[in-house]
Amino acid sequence: MYLYGLSHVRWREEFADCTLLFTDIVTFTNICALCTPYDVVTLLNDLYLRFDRLVGLHDAYKVETIGDAYMIVGVSQSTVAFLGMLMESKLVLSPITHKPIKIRLGVHCGPVVAGVVGIKMPRYCLFGDTVNVANKMESNGIQCKIHVSESAKLNGLKANPSYVFIDRGNTEIRGKGMMYTFFLERNDRKSVWELCARPRSGEQTIDGYMELHDQAIYQEEGTVESQNAENGTTHTTNASNNNNTHHSGRKMMNGSSVDPGSHHVRSPTCTIC
């Protein structure tokens, strides 16, 4: 039997229901263009070491990495790793801005065929439409969000009814048409610190979900935005020459700061470390 036309399939197996996740780094192309290859490798190594630790912690399986794309597979219980991955990404700093990187995460569940293909440098690969849809969940997702399909949501709730999802609604997915999708927000059974297997400091919230969804750490340095509630207008002040922005302690105009030694991220509302 051939697998997608490949005659050298050393091993293969069908799985009726797997959970697949893809991640990638937002603006990774710009990062590559504006910094050295050494910086890129350091960034990816920092991120992937953190992801690898969570994958082992939650019994998932890393299929591969291609550039900034990271792919894992597991059973529905492995969904607990995804919230931890989003949290861990906030501790990885861009070599350009010295602010936390932004990632997209996409999840889908369904049948796959797995096999070790090739003779030279054989690789364990997954095939099937489930892989394509999981990848599209990521590419059509929103930065710093875990974008999931309906099947991923249902499987997740079967494994753990304490998952909390919010509706994204109908989303146009290239090649699939309109799909009703969701965002995974939290796990009411476990705190973020438990999911990441990290101790909580005294200044952090008990469950960690404020830190997980804190957007203040991503605001652009050099601008201060204030929203006028009465007329809905936004005022932006350029602060490029303001001495409040510096590299020692990396104080930002939005009140956030980064400790370059520890990678601890501090915003006006919470601390991530």
TrEMBL record:
Question: GO CC: one term?
Answer: membrane
Which reaction is this enzyme known to catalyze? Answer: GTP = 3',5'-cyclic GMP + diphosphate
Q: Which GO terms describe its biological process?
A: intracellular signal transduction
List the SMART domains: CYCc (SM00044)
- Composition-biased stretches (Low complexity): 231-246
Report the subcellular localization. Cytoplasm; Membrane
Ranges for the Guanylate cyclase domain?
A: 19-138
* Molecular-function GO terms, alphabetical: GTP binding; guanylate cyclase activity
Q: Which family does it belong to?
A: Belongs to the adenylyl cyclase class-4/guanylyl cyclase family.
What is the protein's given name?
guanylate cyclase
Q: Please report the organism this UniProt entry assigns to the protein.
A: Caenorhabditis briggsae
Phylogenetic placement of the source organism? Eukaryota, Metazoa, Ecdysozoa, Nematoda, Chromadorea
